[in-house]
Design brief:
The complex is a heterodimer of chains A (127) and B (744).
Chain A (H helix, E strand, L loop, with lengths): L1 H19 L4 H22 L24 H32 L25
Helix pairs in contact in A: 1-2, 2-3
Chain B lengths: L7 H21 L5 E7 L4 E6 L2 H24 L6 H20 L3 H19 L6 H32 L4 H5 L11 H15 L8 H4 L5 H10 L4 H13 L3 H24 L3 H21 L3 H32 L15 H15 L5 H15 L4 H23 L19 H19 L1 H16 L16 H18 L1 H8 L9 H23 L4 H22 L13 H19 L3 H21 L3 H24 L11 H23 L5 H14 L4 H9 L1 H30 L4
Antiparallel strand pairs in B: 1-2
The chains are: A mainly alpha (127), B mainly alpha (744).
């Protein structure tokens, strides 16, 4: 089943990257969400899957049964999910702010920092 | 600045000159003064100075001619508003130059070398209101600056190979460097530095351009001192690097080509200053050529010619300044018949010109004879060297005639103002230089004992004592001299025809300066093209490049790695598989939809599906968090999307992007496959499992890891979310404030 998740993560990554390269703010944000989900799946699959056997220490025992699921990737993913959420929230605020200020959702038109070239007097602009 | 104070630099320079002069005796006797201080201890770099014969000859030229130039400058620019600036820059240059020629540490030498480059840039661009001066200054800076970088690399390589940066120690190494694997790069780099500084072909063009500088500056930097730094460097490195085919041929060929070509260009000029600039290039070429000849006479020729040239060339440059001042022009075609109105200037020009042409009993004659002897003694190609020297010398005779004779005799063309000799402060310096050329010619032993022989010993250790004489008897050099005079006379008589021929537009192909300008312009175009391409301000381009680079890195690792990508066959559970397919289908909907609402819903399905996967495979806490976060994501996305305009319809399939994205995705999938192909290493998990209850008193291992073992990590995570929230609020509020005002 790990291989299926590997393929799924690959597909999510590809879809996310394609959306992010679209140059439209909303699609970019969708792509970002897919990408962060894909990252979690990658970690999860790499830590091996165990069906329906969560890592708890049963009453009376000192350590969990050896057959329980791998706890480490779960802890890592928990952190990753929350961070991914923070990132998305900030990206959204930024996107909204950028739209308000620049009046566009086309990312290639957001050029306050790198304005299109102003031809200088000494040189002709070349493509 | 009080008028009297402007003479201070000249006085100081004269004192420095006298101090160097009193070291002559001890140095000639073999007592070489040294000073050193540790500078960068870890790298073995010292601030070290040493005054051997070679250093001393240069130090004397720099300080002696410097004193004369400083005096001349203060009078020439009397009352000029920028006189203080000029004198300061000249003084800084003099200090750099003295440091350069006395340094005994390669890095010390380089620092002063760059000092002369920078001060030269500022001095050439002294008239910075003029575009021409600025361009010339920049050109000189780029050419000599690039050479300086090459030199630095060369010196560092030498330091590594030799194990020391002390030049005096490097000189004693014998052929350690010549047999090292890095010898060829070292020679190329060092010669590149020397050739650019000393204006050797094909870098010769910057020197005539630098004539945009005020005349005293040209006389000082661009004839007597700075341009000879390259010659000094080559002479200094000769014991360690010389003697090989590469060294001999590199110097001989480039020197000879520079010498002959510059002489031709000199005859082409009508501006006396430019003409002198080209004759300087010729002299530098000759010096380089003879440094390549590994015979005693060639070295003696170099040492003598250095002194000869410095004297007559500085004198002539200053004479051109006198003509400019006295007759109001330096165009040779507008000058003539000035012998009566400017007798002193005429005297100086004649004395210096005769030395330049190499007539006896001037020192120039001895210099020229030695050049011929050196040329004939050159082992490799005496005929080639002697012919080149003969041609160049003949043209020098003609050029000397143009500078020293034609302005003073013949018809008097209409000059802009009545000509008269300038004041004594201006002519005393050049007069002294010109007279010294005669004095040393009459008493060459003085020069031989104190200057030439100590210098020769520095360049070629172990050379026997050489006597300088005016009369050598009738021999081949004398015959060559006579031929030179004859040929030079013919060239001088034919000067108008020659100049007309040389100035025909078809002559000479493309000047190097034009090539340089074109190169510089295309470099600028390339720079702005590459900047515009790499940082074009287009987000999509940045993203494409980032993803492409990531993809290449991932696939690079896959291709290099020898790990098997074939995983163990495994069982596939049906229900989770259905969920996975659902996720993939939803992601596909997000990919192709043009509706915000569809996209949002599909994203929700993706998130929920992944939460289900977590649930199936024992990650209860993760699943809970995932559902919570997914809900929040959908809600805030929905809120934001309401405020953003509708998603533009995407009609075209972006094949390039799809390719990058697919390659990236497949690469990531194979990363997971590669991980799975390795046996699982459970050690860290086992530690947490074992320590969970006894050490942290928790039965949920995942929770214990988060809040106990990796508590600091979780604290950081909380901080990140907090910072994101603050930043988001800031971004949103800033937007509100902006609304009232102008467009950003």
């Amino acid at each position: 089943m790990e291989l299926v998740l590997a393929a799924l993560s690959g597909f999510l990554v590809a879809a996310g990257a394609y959306l992010m390269m679209s140059g439209q703010l909303v699609r970019f944000l969708f792509g970002l969400v897919l990408l962060s989900n894909a990252a979690n799946v990658v970690i999860f699959a790499a830590g091996r899957l165990t069906y329906a056997n969560p890592p708890f220490v049963p009453d009376g025992a000192k350590i969990p049964d050896p057959s329980v699921a791998n706890a480490l990737p779960q802890a890592l993913i928990l952190t990753a999910i929350v961070i991914g959420f923070g990132l998305l929230a900030f990206a959204l605020a930024l996107a909204f702010r950028a739209y308000q200020s620049l009046g566009t959702v086309v990312m290639d038109d957001m050029r306050a920092c790198d304005p299109p070239e102003i031809p200088t007097s000494t040189e002709k602009p070349s493509a | 600045m009080p008028r009297l104070l402007t003479f201070l630099p000249a006085v100081v320079m004269a004192a420095v000159f006298l101090w160097f002069a009193q070291v002559l005796g001890p140095v000639a006797a073999g007592n070489i003064p040294e000073w050193s201080w540790m500078w960068v201890e870890g790298l073995g770099i010292e601030l070290a100075f040493r005054l051997d014969g070679l250093s001393l000859i240069f130090a004397l030229m720099v300080s002696g001619i410097g004193a004369i130039i400083f005096l001349y400058t203060s009078v020439y620019f009397k009352g000029h508003e920028k006189l203080t600036r000029l004198l300061t820059l000249l003084a800084l240059f003099a200090i750099s130059m003295l440091g350069l020629v006395t340094a005994d540490d390669a890095i010390t030498l380089f620092v002063f070398w760059e000092g002369t480059t920078v001060t030269s840039f500022l001095l050439v661009g002294f008239d910075h209101e003029k575009q021409k001066a600025r361009d010339a200054a920049l050109q000189a800076l780029i050419v000599t600056g690039v050479g300086g970088l090459a030199l630095m690399a060369g010196l560092i390589l030498i330091g590594f190979e030799a194990g020391t940066f002390r030049l005096s120690e490097i000189a004693l190494l014998g052929d350690t460097l010549a047999t090292s694997a890095l010898y060829i790069p070292i020679v190329i780099l060092v010669l590149l530095g020397a050739f650019t500084k000393s204006a050797q072909f094909p870098f010769h063009f910057w020197l005539p351009g630098a004539m945009a500088a005020p005349t005293p500056v040209s006389a000082y930097l661009h004839s007597a001192t700075m341009v000879k730094a390259g010659v000094y460097l080559v002479a200094r490195m000769s014991p360690a690097l010389g003697g090989t085919e590469l060294w001999i041929w590199g110097l001989t060929l480039f020197g000879a080509v520079t010498m002959v070509w510059a002489s031709v260009l000199a005859l082409k000029q009508t501006d006396l200053k430019l003409m002198l600039a080209y004759t300087t290039v010729m002299a530098l070429g000759a010096l380089m050529m003879f440094l390549g000849g590994d015979s005693k006479y060639a070295t003696v020729g170099v040492a003598t010619f250095l002194v000869v040239h410095a004297m007559y060339k500085a004198a002539l440059f200053l004479t051109v300044g006198l003509l400019d001042k006295g007759a109001g022009t330096r165009e040779v075609t507008n000058l003539g018949g000035l012998a009566r109105s400017m007798p002193i200037t005429m005297m100086i020009a004649l004395l210096a010109g005769l030395s330049m042409a190499g007539f006896p009993p001037f020192l120039g004659f001895i210099g020229k004879e030695l050049k011929y002897e050196g040329a004939l003694a050159v082992m490799s190609e005496p005929l080639f060297v002697a012919t080149a020297a003969l041609l160049a010398n003949a043209m020098m005779v003609a050029a000397a005639g143009l500078v020293a004779i034609s302005p003073f005799w013949g018809k008097t063309p209409k000059s802009p103002k009545p000509a008269k000799d300038p004041s004594i402060g201006l002519w005393i310096g050049p007069m002294m230089l010109a007279l010294m050329g005669l004095g040393f010619g009459l008493f060459p032993d003085l020069l031989a004992k104190y200057i030439v022989n100590p210098t020769v010993t520095s360049i070629a250790p172990g050379t026997a004592y050489v006597k300088l004489k005016l009369w050598h008897g009738i021999n081949v050099p004398l015959v060559l001299s006579l031929i030179t005079f004859g040929l030079g006379f013919v060239l001088y008589q034919g000067r108008f025809v020659i100049r007309a021929a040389l100035n025909r537009p078809t002559f000479g192909g493309i000047p190097a300066a034009v090539v340089f300008d074109a190169g510089l312009a295309s470099f600028k175009r390339f720079a702005s093209w590459s900047a515009r391409t790499v940082q074009g301000g287009k987000m999509t381009v940045y993203l494409r490049i980032s993803f492409a680079v990531l993809t290449i890195l991932i696939w690079g690792v896959h291709l290099i790695s020898t790990d098997s990508l074939v995983p163990q066959p495994e069982a596939i559970a049906l229900i989770p598989l259905v969920v996975v397919l659902l996720i993939a289908a939803s992601a596909f909907v997000v990919l192709i939809t043009n509706s915000r609402l569809f996209g949002l819903c599909a994203l929700g399905v993706v998130g929920a599906g992944i939460a289900l996967i977590f649930t199936f495979y024992s990650a209860i806490d993760v699943a809970i968090t995932q559902i919570l976060v997914e809900m929040l994501v959908v809600i805030i996305l929905a809120v934001a999307l309401v405020k953003l305009p509708a998603m533009p319809v995407e009609r075209n399939f972006r094949a390039g992007d799809a390719l990058i994205a697919t390659a990236f995705g497949v690469g990531v999938a194979f990363v997971v496959v590669a991980v799975l192909a390795h046996p699982f290493d459970p050690r860290i998990t086992e530690f947490y499992e074992a320590a969970s209850l006894p050490d942290a008193f928790g039965r949920n291992v995942v929770n214990v890891i988060l809040v106990d073992f990796r508590a600091l990590d979780t604290l950081g995570e909380v901080a990140v979310v907090l910072i994101a929230a603050i930043a988001a609020v800031a971004a949103l509020t800033a937007g509100k404030i902006r609304k009232s005002g102008e467009k950003p």
